[in-house]
Structures are given as C-alpha cells and as structure tokens.
C-alpha cells in the first residue's frame, strides 16, 4: 500500500512539473509576440486573459469629436487588437454604412489603462456622428461595438 502511494505521488509531481513547463512556454511565446508586435499568421495566439473590460465612448469638445475605446481592466495578460472608426453625416443616419468615414485608428495591443481614439475636426459645422469599434481579444472571434448616432454642434458639444 505504501508503495502505491509513493508511485501515485511521484506521478502527480511529474504531471505538475510538465504542466508548469508547458504553461511557461506558452506564456513566453505570447509575451514575445506582445512585446515585439510581430504576428506570424501560421501561429495562433493562445488566449491567456480571463476577463477584459473595455469602455466605448463618443465625445466632443473644442471643435472636435472623437470615438474612444479604453481598456479599463484585464485579468491576466491578453492581446487586445482594436480598430476605431468615426463617421459623420449632415443628416441623421442610423447606420454607419450611410455615413462618411472621417477618421480611423488601429492598435495591435491595447494595454490595460490605455485608450485609442479616432478624432476629427467639426470644421465649424453641426453634424451627426457615430463611432464604430471592432476588436479581438487573444484568439477569440472579432466583436463589433457601435455608438448611438449623436448630433454635435460646431463646437463639438452634444446637442
């Protein structure tokens, strides 16, 4: 009986060591991709994050309007790819496809606490604005977030 316990404990220890080593290899590989901002299309990014909280906002002021995405919190390292787009129209449009794309921005990895924005001048003209973001966290599928269509005056203040 004591011999069986020793063998079982040895097997469990060996499995623990193998699991720890494989976790460290995956973490190192993802961190290298993250720091170097290099993507090998043949390699799949391994999801590491458990939870990511993104904040989306359409704002304006001082003759500008901007759509922003902020990574408020990420539990464990993740690669958060984000595209932001800002659309404008002289008349109210519900869909961004019926509006004019005026600004866009992209970041390969939006780190916790950082913000990415698409900004455009009002050019002294009252217009309707809409923001669009599409983002991908690690190797999950792409998601899209749209703002409401909001009327901003010439100073960039919401009407």
What can you tell me about this protein's structure?
The chain is an alpha+beta fold and 159 residues long. The protein contains 1 helix and 8 strands; from the N terminus they run H-E-E-E-E-E-E-E-E. The strands form 2 sheets. Strands 3, 4, 6, 7 and 8 form a 5-stranded antiparallel sheet that branches. It starts with a helix and ends in a 7-residue tail after the last strand.
How are the secondary structure elements laid out?
Elements: H1 2-36, E1 51-61, E2 64-75, E3 80-89, E4 100-107, E5 115-121, E6 127-137, E7 143-146, E8 150-152
Antiparallel strand pairs: 1-2, 2-5, 3-4, 3-6, 6-7, 6-8
List keywords for this structure.
three-stranded antiparallel beta sheet; single chain; alpha+beta; elongated; 22% helix; 159 residues; five-stranded antiparallel beta sheet
Quick check: average pLDDT? 81
**Beta-strand percentage?**
35-45%
- Which series of helices and strands comes N to C? HEEEEEEEE
Q: How many helices in DSSP terms?
A: 1
Termini separation:
79 Å
As residue ranges, the low-confidence spans are 17-43
Biggest sheet features: 5 strands, antiparallel
Helix content: 10-25%
Q: What radius of gyration results from the CA coordinates?
A: 23 Å
Overall geometric form: elongated
Derived from helix and strand composition plus strand pairing, the structural class reads alpha+beta
- How many extended strands? 8
């Amino acid at each position: 009986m004591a011999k069986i316990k020793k063998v079982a404990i040895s097997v469990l220890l060996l499995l623990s060591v193998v699991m720890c080593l494989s976790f460290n290899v995956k973490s190192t590989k993802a961190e290298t991709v993250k720091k170097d901002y290099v993507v090998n299309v043949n390699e799949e990014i391994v999801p590491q994050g458990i939870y990511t909280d993104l904040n989306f906002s359409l704002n304006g002021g001082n003759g500008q309007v901007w759509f922003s995405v902020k990574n408020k919190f990420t539990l464990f390292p993740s690669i958060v790819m984000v595209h932001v787009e800002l659309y404008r129209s002289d008349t109210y449009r519900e869909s961004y496809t019926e509006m004019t794309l005026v600004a866009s921005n992209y970041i390969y990895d939006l780190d916790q606490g950082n913000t990415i924005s698409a900004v455009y001048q009002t050019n002294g003209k009252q217009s309707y604005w809409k923001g669009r973001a599409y983002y991908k966290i690690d190797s999950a599928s792409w998601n899209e977030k749209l703002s409401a269509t909001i009327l901003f005056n010439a100073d960039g203040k919401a009407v």
